[in-house]
Amino acid sequence: MTAKNELTKSLMASIWFMFLTFPIMVIRVNTVTDTIEWRWQNMFAVGFGAFFLSMLWRYLIRKKEMSGKKDSQSRKSPIYQVIRDQKFALPGLAAIAVFTILFPHIFSMYQTNIMISALIYVMLGLGLNIVIGLAGLLDLGYVAFFAVGAYSYALLNLHYGITFWIALPLGGLLGAVAGIILGYPVLRLRGDYLAIVTLGFGEIIRLVMENWNEFSFGPSGIANIPKPGFFGMELSLHATTIYIFYTIVALVIFTIFVINRLENSRIGRAWIALKDDEIACQAMGIDKARTKLRAFALGATWAGMGGVVFAAKTTFINPASFTIWESVIILCTVVLGGMGSIPGVICGAMLLILLPEYLRDFGEFRMITFGSVLVLMMVFRPGGMIENVRKTYQFKK
Amino acid sequence: MKPILEVKNMTMDFGGLRAIDSLDITINQGEIIALIGPNGAGKTTFFNCITGIYTPTSGDIHISPPHGEPQRINGLKPNVITKKGLARTFQNIRLFTSMTVLENVMIGCHAVTKAGVLGAIFRGPATKAEESRIVEKSYSILEKMGLARYVNDLAVNLPYGAQRRLEIARAMATDPFLLLLDEPAAGMNPQETRALDELILRLRDREGVAILLIEHDMKLVMSLSEKIYVVDYGKKIGEGTPEEIRNNPAVIKAYLGEEIDA
After folding, report:
1. Arithmetic mean of pLDDT, A28-51
2. Are residues B44 and B212 in contact, defined by beta-carbon separation less than 8 angstroms?
3. Which residues in chain B have Cβ-Cβ distances shorter than 8 Å to A395?
């Protein structure tokens, strides 16, 4: 394409934008004097802005196309190189560990609370990563399992006085059961159809919780959920926050450990095969139904446990915490971070939860920034921030 | 010679369309058999029926594995049939594109291994041993197929001919007694086709698998197969040695059309 061509296209874009924004940016009715003000300077601002942004856009796209199609396996993203290099990995891990241990002591309780939410989302993201990133099953109702976990702790505690540490594995288990219950009817579905059914499932769970007053106390929710106790000791509010922080850190580490092992196992490979090609996967002797159910159940386990932690952290839950919006955010962390990549999903969750939190000063521009980041990421790095790199094996020749 | 696959009177209907019309096919141990016919004759449908992707409308499919009980396999799921020892490749390559070449072959070992979720998480000695066994096995299969230098590359980045061979390697990893190849030479250049010819013979002679082959490359079919079945519109119109098929008037008619007497 010639430079002239590029200029014409950007010019067209800017004219189009001036035309589109004309009624709102240029014309203004002054209701006091009943006159119309023509703010032509705004039109020029829009025109110039659109022109330069369009040029920039075109330039970046071209640059991306010039760099060619190199796959992540041969390119070796720098982050993976660092992670896999023993020289950097150990000091890096040590630094992260020290930072994590000191975090609640350096920063305020507000910061610690934000970090706890972010870590809950890391856990949810990693769990959904099994379902979407590895097994390729587009699940839009993932928050339902989160709700199952939260409600199991709240209700079991209310009725039977079950404590946090017993509720945690129970929440995971009930999440897994819910995953299998959802999994059975959708075994035959794939792609868009699966997405719609899971979306419906998520809404069903929320609506049941909202309307079944006798069971879940309806929209008013359940309050006074106890925070976890430390071997029966009552802790101060400050101390419990720190305690929950360390608990969720431990849980995240546990999650990473398990998913890392699963990913490069017989089970994990079967999931990826299922994602890549369902028919070939069966032709290789993989039981499709079983593999799908496993993915749903294992993915939901983490959501269930995350839900228990969430209920313990906020001490109050109601159906409003488990809307479709939550599912979308968790889905975004997986897609933005990099499907199937553990460090990617961690970064994605941190970014998506912490960014809106620290962007509060920008007021109404907060969500627009958030949206733009998502769009730009998908255009320029469709594989996510940190693309997954498969394990390599060494052989003696 | 002992028959290992016997298809009797198999019919497959899709609504009103009869894709396969009472077909009989027998394959003996260690044979290379070709299934040929014009486009749309029902060859791939036949493969799909045998491997469980479709359930045939009527008829019987019997297998008698060299080390196992004879049984009827109509209507079993594809993964169960693979476990019984029938492996296949696909006409349009269906590799697992986001995995490495080695992992593609390791997937083939899925049916003959058994590590579960807990095994994968705790990675006990049994799981570790199994894992290193399938890595070794997969690597040695890749070596035999001449794919060893691609081990850690993503399957999607392989040259076309290598992708075809990887499909065969993956199928071999399931330890089959019968290998079904759906147009393995499609899109290959003459050198690659010659190499494939040798490869298929080697698989039969060294690994002892019987091979059923769908192919349009007549040179390959004629040089390789001991017996050829010809189908057209789902019906068998001829069977016999390559020499017999070459002179069969019904076959010539199906491929070239009838002569018009002017």
Report:
1. 87
2. no
3. 139, 148, 151
Report yes or no: A147 and A329 within 8 Å, Cβ to Cβ: no
Model pTM score: 0.85
CA distance, residue B246 to nearest chain A CA (Å): 34
Name the domain count of chain B: 1
The residue assigned the tokens 């299969």 is B141
Type of residue found at A125: G
Asked if A275's CB is within 8 angstroms of B99's CB, the reply is: no
Structural domain range at position B243: 3-85+176-256
Closest-CA residue of A relative to B86 is: A283
Residue B65 lies in a domain: yes
Count Cβ–Cβ pairs < 8 Å, chain A vs chain B: 130
CB B247 within 8 A of CB B230: no
A15, β-bridge pairs: none
To the nearest whole Å, the CA of B171 is away from the closest chain A CA by 7
Average pLDDT of the residues of chain A: 86
The total of other beta-carbon atoms located within 10 Å of residue A113's CB is: 17
A→B contacts (Cβ < 8 Å), by residue, are 71, 73-74, 258, 261-262, 265-270, 272-273, 275-277, 279-288, 294, 298, 340, 388, 390-393, 395
CATH class of residue range A82-380: mainly alpha
Does residue B229 lie in a domain region?
Answer: yes
Note whether residue B215 is domain-resident: yes
Task: For chain B, 262 residues long, give each residue's pLDDT as a single digit of tens.
Answer: 788 999 999 999 998 899 999 899 999 998 999 999 888 888 999 999 999 999 999 999 999 988 888 899 888 999 999 999 999 999 999 999 989 999 999 999 988 888 888 888 888 888 888 889 999 999 999 999 889 899 888 999 898 889 999 999 999 999 999 999 999 998 888 988 999 999 999 999 988 899 999 998 888 999 999 999 999 988 999 899 998 988 888 888 888 777 666 5
Cβ A283–B51 below 8 Å, yes or no? Answer: yes
Domain residue spans of chain A: 3-66, 82-380
Residue B94 lies in a domain: no
ipTM value of the model?
Answer: 0.90
The residue of A84, A259, A284 whose CB has the most chain B CBs within 10 angstroms, and thus the best one to mutate to test that interface, is A284
CA angle B61, B63, B67 (to 5 degrees): 170
Q: A180-205: per-residue pLDDT in tens?
A: 998 888 888 878 899 999 999 999 99
CATH number at residue B247: 3.40.50.300
Structure tokens at A381: 């790095």
- Cβ contact A265–B127 (<8 Å): yes
Q: Determine the Cα–Cα distance for residues B155 and B167; give it in Å rounded to an integer.
A: 10
Other residues' Cβ atoms within 10 Å of the Cβ of residue A392:
13
Structure tokens at A17: 């934008």
Helix (H, G, I), strand (E, B), or coil: what is residue B236? strand
Strands A35-38 and B178-182: unpaired
Residue type, A343: P
